[in-house]
Design goal:
This protein is of the alpha/beta class. Among the domains are: about 5-150, no CATH class; about 250-510 and about 605-625, Alpha-Beta Complex (Spore Coat Polysaccharide Biosynthesis Protein SpsA, Chain A). Helices cover about 55% and strands about 10% of the residues. The chain has 25 helices and 14 strands. It has helices at about 10-20, 25-40, 45-50, 55-65, 85-90, 115-125, 135-145, 150-165, 175-195, 195-225, 225-230, 260-270, 290-300, 320-325, 345-355, 380-400, 415-420, 430-440, 460-485, 485-495, 495-530, 540-565, 570-575, 585-605, 620-625; strands at about 70, 95, 105-110, 130-135, 250-255, 280-285, 305-310, 335, 340-345, 360-365, 370, 410-415, 445-450, 455. Strand 2 (about 95) and strand 3 form a beta hairpin. Its main location: membrane.
């Protein structure tokens, strides 16, 4: 049934007439009007998002239409940096400019639908023309970013430490922790000197039991089965969002020395199944990373993209860059991706639907990360096995029982209000994802998982892998130390079950990685002693330690392989091949990285070791199948749009 002229909002009809007066083609106006009706936006928004007309040319035409000066540039030194200037980052409408020796000018980016009112106002007050000028909306936003940059980055670096110091990793070890740590260390040395054998056995037994405890959570995940992946989620009576009801979604990507991969990244982000007019894609770069900035500016980026330059200031970390950019995020939801990520195009829609259906205290949704280069080396192969176990088995089970999730560093979808409420990312924590997942839980929020994946590549060389893993372990150490500043407060915040889970996940992982080579040495020496006669029979305590350590080491290998293999697809198992046989070597590399992290935590706690990325020559078959669909172009104009 055809809709009549009355079905078209008056605002769209008026807007179409204004655009026609600017000389825009009638079919173009009609096509954009159809999209505006579908998406609940304006013709102007659809026109600029589509890229059919350059933003500067459009606003220059508006300036001619109303008889105002058009500015092609806004000198940042002439812009007032007042208290509420940052509001113009999320909704830029106007800024004040004052050139030396000239009267103050208010620079505006008017909307086509309000041009009629602006013309009437100028006719009533002709003198107003001398104090108004028009500039592109993006130019106004860029000027605001530059004017408040130094103030904003200082606030970003200090915000969490000043507002919520109990959650900040800026202090590696507090005075209280140093005091009790010194007492425990002194007591241990005294016991070791007084009774070295008993002390060594007690320490060995304690480490072995802690190692065993940390293994139980992954063993439990293995025995739990894969029911969560197959069971039908209980659907709440919430209808699917229509196109017009979709909120603005912010996509943030922190980039540093990534000039070679930006084209692949932009291509992947352009495939996201979300209306362009409701996409806010922020490419966050260090201001002195000229190579990456030049590569981005060389691309023809759509209006949904913006480049945010972070002023150079210590610490030079990804979480600092993300927290800085959050000042300008316009979405109701925000998702974080890495430079090499290729997210499933439907991931935003799944996350939005899930947010609409879950309880309001679910503040974060973690998408699974899928490694696509398992064939390239034994390291990337085992990395894929590890990620499959973590993102497809362990995290969904933790989410099901409302336990704390140590988030992955990418593909985290947040309710932006909750993210800001907890203080966003800690600029001083180099594993900001795990820290934020635990902090959300402590503040009363929960995290859950979704199904549509993000594809990415794993390191293929030992040097790159060790550098990345060292940073991760250093950040996990920071996170553990932050939580353990006041253990009783942490138990009160998290609940006893979640606190124990945190200790098994993070504390146990640290203990097992650090203790692993020591336990392997003990097992090897004990085995040689038993195999080389004459050998005395082992005493019961030694046999107990040997049995526990044997279970710990080989149980770890078996659980890691079984948990990961159970989550891999047939194609992924084929790509992995027999590389799982190298799991013992992989674990020794893990231990080396953990010990290296302990040293770095003392020497340079906030150093961010960059992981280099290279573009993929071609997408895998799995990616092709998931990204082959494109958004339909919702066609011709409905009746009533003036043409």
């Amino acid at each position: 049934m055809k809709a009549g002229r009355a079905a078209i909002p008056r605002s769209l009809r008026d807007e179409a007439l204004v655009l026609k007066s600017l000389g825009l083609a009638k079919p173009l106006i009609a096509r954009m009007g159809a999209r505006a009706l579908l998406n609940g936006t304006s013709i102007e928004q659809e026109l600029l998002a589509d890229g059919s007309i350059e933003e500067a040319a459009y606003y220059e035409a508006l300036a001619r239409r109303v008889g105002l000066t058009f500015l092609k540039a806004i000198p940042e030194e002439q812009v007032f940096d007042y208290r509420h200037l940052d509001a113009q980052l999320t909704r830029p409408t106007s800024i004040r400019v004052h050139a030396p020796g000239q009267p103050q000018i208010t620079v505006i980016a008017p909307e086509a639908g309000h041009i009629g009112q602006l013309i009437e106002r100028l006719e009533r007050m002709p003198g107003l023309r001398r104090s108004l000028a028009i500039a592109p909306l993006s130019l106004i936003r860029d000027a605001v970013w530059k004017v408040g940059a130094e103030r904003r980055v200082r606030a970003t670096v200090g915000a969490l430490f000043e507002d919520q110091p109990q959650h900040s990793a800026r202090l590696v070890v507090t005075g209280r922790q140093g005091f009790w740590g010194g007492i425990l260390l002194s007591a241990g040395v005294a016991l070791l000197l007084g009774s070295p054998f008993v002390s060594a056995v007690a320490l060995h037994l304690a480490l072995s039991l802690l190692y065993c405890a940390s293994l139980t959570i992954r063993l439990g995940a293995l025995l739990h089965g894969n029911r969560k992946r197959r069971r039908r989620r209980r659907r709440l009576p919430v209808p699917m969002a229509t196109e017009a009801e979709l909120p603005v979604y912010t996509v943030m990507v922190a980039l540093y020395r990534e000039a070679g991969i930006v084209r692949q990244l932009v291509d992947a982000l352009q495939r996201l199944d979300w209306p362009r007019t409701r996409l806010d894609i922020m490419l966050v770069c260090e201001a002195d990373d000229s190579e990456t900035l030049d590569a981005l500016r060389a691309l023809k980026l759509g209006r949904q993209f913006s480049i945010v330059e972070v002023p150079p200031m210590q610490p030079r970390t990804k979480p600092k860059a993300l927290s800085y950019a959050l000042n300008g995020a316009r979405g109701d939801y925000v998702v974080i991706y890495d430079a090499e990520d290729r997210p499933d195009p439907g991931q935003l829609r799944e996350a939005c639907e899930r947010f609409r259906r879950v309880r309001p205290d679910v503040a974060c949704l973690q998408a699974p990360l899928v490694i696509t280069n398992a064939r390239e080396s034994w390291i990337s192969g085992l990395f894929s096995l590890e990620y499959a176990a973590l993102f497809r088995r362990l995290l969904p089970i933790l989410a099901r029982y409302r336990l704390p999730l140590p988030l992955g560093g990418t593909s985290n979808h947040f309710r932006i209000g909750a993210l800001r409420h907890v203080g966003a990312w800690d600029p001083y924590n180099v594993t900001e994802d795990a820290d934020l997942g635990i902090r959300l839980h402590r503040c009363g929020y929960r995290s859950a998982t979704i199904d549509k994946p993000t594809f990415e590549d794993a390191p293929v060389t030992a040097s790159v892998w060790i550098g990345q893993r060292t940073r991760w372990y250093k950040g996990w150490l920071q996170t553990w130390l932050v939580v353990m500043r006041r253990p009783r407060r942490a138990v009160a915040d998290m609940g006893l079950g979640s606190f124990v889970t945190f200790q098994l996940l993070v504390g146990g992982m640290l203990i097992s990685a650090l203790a692993h080579p020591l336990i392997v040495v003990f097992l090897t020496s004990s085995a040689f002693a038993m195999l080389n006669p004459p050998s005395a029979a082992m005493d019961p305590l030694a046999r107990l330690l040997f049995a526990i350590d044997l279970f710990n080491v080989f149980g770890t290998y078996a659980v890691v392989i079984a948990l990961g293999a159970n989550a891999l697809t047939s194609a992924e198992k084929k790509a992995l091949g027999r590389r799982w046989l190298a799991v013992p070597l992989y674990w020794m590399m893990t231990s080396f990285s953990a010990w290296r992290a302990v040293v770095e935590l003392r020497a340079r706690p906030f150093f961010w070791e960059k992981t280099p990325h290279t573009p993929r020559a071609e997408l895998t078959a799995a990616q092709h199948s998931s990204t082959s669909g494109t958004r339909p172009d919702h066609g011709t104009a409905p009746p009533g749009i003036p043409t």
